[in-house]
Hints:
Helix 7 runs parallel beside helix 9 (about 165-185). This protein has 2 domains: about 5-85, K Homology domain, type 1 (Ribosomal Protein S8, Chain: A, domain 1, 2-Layer Sandwich); about 90-185, K Homology domain, type 1 (Ribosomal Protein S8, Chain: A, domain 1).
Amino acid sequence: xxxxxxxxxxxxxxxxxxxxxxxxxxxxxxxxxxxxxxxxxxxxxxxxxxxxxxxxxxxxxxxxxxxxxxxxxxxxxxxxxxxxxxxxxxxxxxxxxxxxxxxxxxxxxxxxxxxxxxxxxxxxxxxxxxxxxxxxxxxxxxxxxxxxxxxxxxxxxxxxxxxxxxxxxxxxxxxxxxxxxxxxxxxxxxx
Length: 191
């Protein structure tokens, strides 16, 4: 018999603990109810432990941890709770892995991804049908696997220094190819 791990943990920034807990504990309770887990939050350190309830399962525990992580990475609870759908994933790009601790490079890249008055981020979200959060030293994406992968690729292009127009062209071309693929699937004879 295989024993399934029933506890997971993560750490979120202290300034996001209040968002995770919510007014009167409402967000925390909602996560516990949806995923059938118990969420224990240490407001001194940001350490969060998730324990599966007897009626919960390992997949729900993993999704609950992703929701907590997403909230910690700057997503609103509503956007983070989209992760309860098994088709939606969270992808976190840690800019420290690319630039080390060079804060000026991290700030520059975050500015490129956000764009003037948030225009670039908004375009990335619209063209990829994802949600993007730029928080601290990370850029996080939620969406279905294909969309999140495309958004990640576009973000990495911006990090590499590609021009915004080049990235937008790439995304429009990708979107056109996706539409063609879906149309051909519709017209394929069923077996």
